[in-house]
């Protein structure tokens, strides 16, 4: 499967979101996009802060934007995450915890960079044995 062809539209949106990254401290630019089943794209970028710990990752920006518009996990078709770096920017631990709550376990998560590297995974693979609302019962 050519991931760049198969997921062209969502990746195009994620790469254009990456241009919006506000990352004056790390200079590490990340873009994300959530595609909902109604064909809409919801983008997010990392947004940093001089108080570093307040920075928000691209994945959470995109997912929170999607949920803020009323969509829920069953409405989501796929998610993409991109960087301009050489290595693939797999999601940080905090984002994985948010993703396990806000995405279905088997929803495709496409991770790509500008050097034509790409992979498709899902949050079950990214965060096995996760802590969820099941643990609270
Ligand atoms: N970042 C993301 O946006 N997503 C990730 O999964 C990893 C890290 C951002 C946070 C910070 O703005 C910069 O990348 C460097 O850590």
Describe the structure.
It is built from five helices and five strands, in the order ααββαβαββα. It is an alpha+beta fold and 137 residues long. It has a five-stranded mixed beta sheet.
Short description:
The chain is of the alpha+beta class. Helices cover 29% and strands 21% of the residues.
Q: How many strands in all?
A: 5
Please give the CATH architecture. Answer: 3-Layer(aba) Sandwich
The main sheet comes to: 5 strands, mixed
How big a fraction of the residues is strand? 15-25%
CATH superfamily: Cytidine Deaminase, domain 2
**In order across it, which strands form the biggest sheet?**
2-1-3-4-5
Bound molecule types: tetrahydrodeoxyuridine
Q: What is the top-level CATH class?
A: Alpha Beta
Helicity range = 25-40%
